[in-house]
Amino acid sequence: HRDADPTPATTGNVSKLIKKFFKGVATTPSIYESCMYTNSPDENPVLDRHPQFNNIIIGAGFSGHGFKLSPVIGKILYELALELSPSYDLTPFRVERFKSLKSAL
Length: 105
Hints:
Layout: H1 8-21, E1 46-49, E2 57-60, H2 70-81
Antiparallel strand pairs: 1-2
């Protein structure tokens, strides 16, 4: 998903803040970027091994929350990669929860 395109109101507000707090910096953006993030069908991340290829570890679909969860996600993916027992119950995050969907993951 991508956030909405910038509006004149949004860019105007940002320009005012730049002018106030960053003296001498151009207030007109040279480019516009929006945030891109992924969602899973149930809006919960997938933390699991690939169902067919055991050497592939999946950590995806964080719907924009991955950064703030990165310490625990890193630990979980590390444990999966080294074939250790996960520190947390990963049942709600297993890829198999999507078996009923027509599209394959």
